[in-house]
User: Fold this.
Amino acid sequence: MAQAAIALDNVSKSLGGRPILKGISFVVEQGDVFGYLGPNGAGKTTTIRVLMGLFPPNSGNALIMGKNAGSDDARQRVGFVLEADGLYENMTADDNLDYYAQIYGLSSDSRGRRIDELLELAGLSDRARDKISSYSKGMRQRLALARAMLHEPDLLILDEPTAGLDPTGQIEVRQTIVDLAERGKTIFLSSHNLDEVQRICNRIALIDKGKIKLCSRIDEVSSDGLSLEQTYVRLTGGGDR
Amino acid sequence: MRQTMVIVRKDLREALRTGAFYFYVALILAITAVVGVRALGGVIGGQVDTLLEQGLAPAEVAAAIEPLMGTVLVMLSLQSMVMFAFFGSGHNLVMEKTKRSLESLLCTPVSLKQVCLGKTLAIFVPCVVVGLLLAFAAVVGADQLFLAPKAGQSVMPGAATIVATLVAVPLVFFLFVALVVVLQLIITRIQWINGILAGLFAAIVVALNYGLVGFGLTPQSIVFVSLAVAAVLVLATVFLSRIITKERIVLSSKG
Assistant:
């Protein structure tokens, strides 16, 4: 059996003395498009920061492809789009991608070709030499996705990639995610958007108040007659924290 | 080291693309030219006049003025570097924290040490280049404008002072920048820290100026003072680097 892409085992994390994650466990298998749902303040971003090695867990284990989440090996195999895209506004799209390509150790021969491919995939080839400050939010998100793919990672961790986008931007970003999933990438998608998760994910987990309330295949969620929306409201009370 | 240099090159390129960089170069150039050279003219010119009135020969005047020129070279280079760091290159890291691009960088396989060293070098290199160029230009300018016409010959700082300026001053400055970078990485209100450090540094520079000019310290003394300051900075940086973590950096980026 293939190694799990993500394995969280009883992970707890407190910040400033306040428990944010309370012993969460779930597994994301390779090839999954895994939706990670929860209200604001439930612990989604903290989970992602643990997975990216930014926050070491207080207890429990976080593994990426069998490696410790904070290790260089793990980070080399993960592509990411965080809540803030982290692009450099004074630099062009080309330069932003080139910088990360060098950080990931891509050779100078392959860098140019890879950047061209990804700009094409993101539909930004004609804006490659424009500064990021002139980009729309949707274009920035697509570029951030392209950046996440530079080093051909096995796993993509996406923190609300369609948040704040207009409907067209959401469709474009969602389509890019579907394209990546069809290429066999494992995708961990944190989102508020239940409709989006229902459309593109095969498995989901629901976190609320730092605890996993649900982890199942998407088609099993509605087996008791409730829609995903109804299940979400029932398990979370429907409100932000 | 390769990834560190990638960070340095990116930061330098980014700085060179902003108008603020050139504005601050021009501003510091103007401050050094107008205030520095005029002050140098006042101090050095006054000293030369006094020595000539005492009946010293031009060669004796030149010999007596040489340590003062050395002091001026050391202090000017250090002041220019620090001014440029605070007003010019130093704001890069602040922007990276507020725009959260630093958080993305920390998710890559780059280590925290590489990030700290890269950010330090990216501030250090342009400041040292600008600081040394301005200081040497100001000293040569002061010599040509105020000293040579009166003393009848050009007087430049001695070899020991030039070595101190090229080695000891950049060493102290590098450690100072490293300390500032570490503080900027872990503290939320970076502007406050910059302000406090700038004030502290200005006080130290004024005290050193008073000590060096007032007590006529030799280049050797300057090297000893520099090494003592460097040792204190090393201790402070090592202490702070022990508490720096990615978690602290991310949490301090919220402000």
User: Anything to note?
Assistant: Chain B touches chain A through 26 residues (CB under 8 Å). Residues 104 and 146 of chain B are 53 Å apart (CA to CA). Chain B has a mean pLDDT of 81.
